[in-house]
Every structure is written in C-alpha cells, then in structure tokens.
Amino acid sequence: MFYENLKKARKKAGLSQEKIAEIVNTSRSNISKYENGKLEPNLETLKKLCEEYDVSADEILEIKINKKNVNITNKNNISIKQRDNGIINIKNK
Fold first, then answer.
1. What domains lie within the chain, and their CATH numbers?
2. pLDDT category, 29, cuts 50, 70, 90?
3. Is 71 left (phi over 0), alpha (psi -120 to 50) or beta?
C-alpha cells in the first residue's frame, strides 16, 4: 500500500517523522497521517518525500508499467497517465 511504502522508505532513509516533517515543511502529525493512510500528501510534498527518501514516485505509488497506456486515479482524484511516447502526466482531476 502507498502509505506503507512511505513509512518503509522513511525508515530506510534513517529519518524520524520529526526530521522529515521539518525537511518537507509540514507537521509531524501530517507525516504520521500519510504513513497511516489517513491523509495523502499533495504532489509537491510527495515529490519532496521521494527526493529525500531517494526513491521514485512509481515505487512509492506501486506503479508498474507493462502496457502502452497506463491510467491510475487515487481516492483524491489525482490522475497519473503514461502516454505511448513514455511521457507521464500527473494532475488533479
């Protein structure tokens, strides 16, 4: 699950919830909620988390590309699409 991947990545990076919250400019409470599936980070925060954890967003989101066209939409209507040309679009619906 997405939230479990966030927690594993943070621990692997050797960061506390407090430290990563400071780095990505959010609260420790929000980090806890992300890791427990009670809140999803916005795209900018997800990008920062991935950078700090040194993982790709597709690893965190468990996106497996094995078809020409991929379309994933999460519960907050964030859409991730990969086109035939390999370009990935991420947007709020």
1. 2-61 (1.10.260.40), 65-93 (no CATH)
2. very high
3. beta
